[in-house]
Amino acid sequence: MSYYDNLVMQAQMKYSLYYDTYASGGTPYRLSTRPPQPYTEQIQRLVEEIATADFVLVGGASGLSAAGGGDFYYEDNASFRKYFRKYARKYHFQGAFAGMMHRWETREEFWGYLATFLHTTQTAPIRRPYLDLDTLLKGKDFFVLTTNQDTQFVKLYPEAKVAEIQGDHRFFQCAACCTDDTWDAVEPVRAMIEAMGEGTAVPRDMVPRCPHCGGEAFPWVRGYGNFLQGKKYEEQYEKVSRSILAHKGERILFLELGVGRLTPMFIQEPFWNLTLAFPQTRYIAVNDRYSYLPAQIEDRGMVIKADIATVLRDAVAVKQKEEMA
Ligand SMILES: [Zn+2]
Predict the structure, then answer these.
(1) Are 95 and 25 within one domain?
(2) How far is the CA of 223 from the centre of ligand 1 (A)?
(3) Are residues 179 and 293 in the same domain?
(4) Ligand 1 center from residue 158 Cα (angstroms)
(5) What mean pLDDT do residues 309-320 have?
(6) Which pLDDT value is given to residue 182?
(7) Are residues 245 and 291 in the same domain?
(8) What is the 161 CA–ligand 1 centroid distance (Å)?
(9) How far is the CA of 263 from the centre of ligand 1 (A)?
(10) What is the pLDDT of residues 216-248, one digit of tens each?
(11) 252/315 same-domain check
């Protein structure tokens, strides 16, 4: 088991142990009670911590994509209507994930919906918060760990710099996990969208199939009970583990962006424990809803409770002003 995998496993055990606390939105960690610095000082400190870090480990979660307009997953809002128009009218789903849980009458209709979902993220431009983050990281040694499946980071960076531990919309796996192979989903999705036109179902012979068993394919993503945790998955954990161990002893900045309360075990708690374990490191989180900072790392940590898009934009402005001066 890889170094980071082990940290996630410990956090998962903690989650089971204190399930009721987590389920009610809480945390078993003792939190700092210090009042936060004023917002402008926090932005200044964010820019300074990035500048002085030897290495930045970015942990990008759902809030980061949501801040950039990728907010169609959990509610029926303007962006859901924009990308899922046909299905929003016909089925009145409360967001993209609700459609994934729907009991579809035919596989052709299900795949019409799934292709629409995948096509939306595969073809989305790089969103503004990601570009601002990239500006902040210019010239720094960094690595990205993400739970986002929407391929935003791999549009910006080479795969060697990104670990996608919950899958990636560009790949299919066997729905029954009969093989450890994953394969391209981009071209089949494009073809399904084209064949579907204004309809809501794909032609029967275009339902993607596993080349090994002939059963249906499925996107390579966690969340539906059949996530293929084979070679490709292990590679993601190995990448992030290597990057941390290579910089152990240096001034690492753990930069957590947009972690929700449902999955603290993948980024947040490993980052807390790494910060605690390595005294020369720093921890900064940006979150629009929660400001959870463990008391044990309050001297080396900060949470900016504000909209991520605004924080990153403001930090870029501060950085650029400093560079002009
Ligand atoms: Zn198969």
Answers:
(1) no
(2) 19
(3) no
(4) 29
(5) 98
(6) 98
(7) yes
(8) 30
(9) 29
(10) 999 999 999 999 999 999 999 999 999 999 999
(11) yes
